[in-house]
Amino acid sequence: MGLDGKVVVVTGGTRGVGAGVARAFAEAGADVVVCARRPPDVPLPGVEFGALDLRAPEAVRAFFAALPRLDVLVNNAGGTPYRRLTDTDAERHARVIELNLVAPLTASLAAYEHLRRAGGSVVMIGSVSGSRPSPGSAAYGAAKAGLENLARSMAVEWAPEVRVNTLVVGMVRTELAHLHYGGEDGIAGVSRTVPLGRLAEPADVGAAAVFLASDAAAYISGASLLVHGGGERPAFLDAATVNKEA
């Protein structure tokens, strides 16, 4: 994949999808640094940890300025609690947008000079929430929609030195998935709604990120790669065919 010896930073790469991405790059031969507020609970072989609050712009700029080199930035840090719009105020929703949209922009700008010199790339970890209604996580969905659009603009502004792409990720079976989906029975039920019959594993997202950062994707920029197992079966199909035998 042409990643041997490349330096890769994965934001929020200490658990879940981020840890899967970090492992995938390490297995591809890259030198990987993950940055988050807390170190990983389980050590990641071949991966270095750097403490960083991605919502602190000066700290982010200092972190990237201290790197001797950078070839790939994976903007993975993000997330949201379940919160309906009227359950809190706009300021609380704005914090979700800050983490999922403003922080990746801050990191990308801080990393730009490194990436330009290296002819590197940025991989945004987006979400299907950015392209469909997201009740209970509306601010998150709006931020992910903005992130995908930001990546397309960055791809144009920063070409040809830096490539920028987005992974549009669906449901993933992380170590916290049982809490989100209601245990193993819930995971099984949700998996049946995915055409490929299962939730993604973090390694699936990692493999896609490695591809977009690799020489194999050297002519791919401004793209959005769907990593969602075929999408979701439209609910209206079951309703429309309930009496098909008649």
Automatic annotation (TrEMBL):
Domain annotation Ketoreductase: ranges: 6-190
Record keyword Oxidoreductase present: yes
Pfam families membership: adh_short_C2
Keywords: Oxidoreductase
Any one GO MF annotation of this record: oxidoreductase activity
Gene3D superfamilies attached to this UniProt entry: NAD(P)-binding Rossmann-like Domain
InterPro entries: KR_dom, NAD(P)-bd_dom_sf, Sc_DH/Rdtase_CS, SDR_fam
PANTHER family (UniProt xref): OXIDOREDUCTASE, SHORT-CHAIN DEHYDROGENASE/REDUCTASE FAMILY (AFU_ORTHOLOGUE AFUA_5G02870), SHORT-CHAIN DEHYDROGENASE_REDUCTASE FAMILY PROTEIN
Family in the record: Belongs to the short-chain dehydrogenases/reductases (SDR) family.
Protein's recorded name: Short-chain dehydrogenase
Natural source organism: Streptomyces curacoi
